Amino acid sequence: MTMIPPALSTAFFSRKRATPLSTLLSLTTLNLATAAVLLFGPAYAQAQAESPIAVIGATVSASTWQDPVEALGTLRADESVTLSSTLTATVRAFNFEDGDHVDAGQWLVQLDDDQAQAELRAAQALLGQRQSALDRAQQMQDRNLGIRATLEDNAAQVRQSEAEIDAIRAHLADHRLQAPFAGTVGLRNISVGALVTPGTDLVTLDKLDTMKLDFTVPATLLSVLHRGLTLSATTPSYPDDVFRAEVATLGTRIDPVSRSLVVRADLPNPDGRLLPGMLMEVKLNQPARQALTIPESALVPDGERQTVWLIEAGQPPRVTRREVTTGERREGEVEIVDGLDSGQRVVTHGTLKVREDDPVELIATDVGTGDIKDVLERQRRASRSQTSESQTLESQTPESQTPESQTSESRATESQADD
Hints:
The protein is α+β, with helices and mostly antiparallel strands.
């Protein structure tokens, strides 16, 4: 008999004892999988390989779409004027307080007119004298005692005096400034006794019950612009308020530099909160049209393309990648110009988990942003319940094996270990 050295004998039996342990683990796993297949059949293996992916979808639908045009505008008073002096004089009186509402024709500023009043009195006296001379010449002419030329000279002098009086009265009117229309006066910056010269600004007057909102839009939109288009405007002065109006007038000239057109809208201002010079953010609503829309979350960028995961009907439903052409966008929605039809469904949540021809489970459709959290929470609870049932099934599978199968498995393990 051949003697085996102790060292080789120890190494050989150590290796032989280690091999059955690792092999046993592999075979046990294999037997569990084999038992599941034998227990549930081939459908179980296919279901495990193609379990549907839970997704949330949305229906492609036609909706009313308005493309807003955003612009910056400036408010102007419906009527606005700055009253100024046309002559050199001192201020005698004011007939208003800062911020007062005044009526049309009400005098606001009175300048010193003593000299003009004196000139008026002198002209009126001269007119009286000449009128008397004309009356005497007329009486003499009626008696055929006067000269016709003298009568005509006296009549001409009377007409001259009347014209001089009219000129003086017009000059006197320049000493009293009146409101040309009803409105609100601004702040005065001069006092009584101040000397003013022609062109000196005395007071501002604005009609504020209606405001003019002027803004510019690109000339490319000229074909869709017309009177009556609705718009909404906001201002940082009143961030919570939205002011609505309609387009009243379109400009008659295109700016050659900016290629834009000035558009004017009349903005009601009954409470007087809006003031001239305010900056307004304008959204002009173009005519409404029908457009196919989907949630923005359904879009999957692919380079320069935009794609979506289209849910194809079936048992179970499957997804295919579809390239789409997008149009305008608004908050949370995008217009689909080409690539989809009304009534089709697309994946909105779960776009990163699916691949081409994957089966899906539509757990919700057309849900709002606030409802997604509830949908996902219900799905998590369902997933935890399924996982718990699967673990229970796996724990029961080895116990259901017969003694004969366990004995066969042990023999196969020992046989492979011996090999």
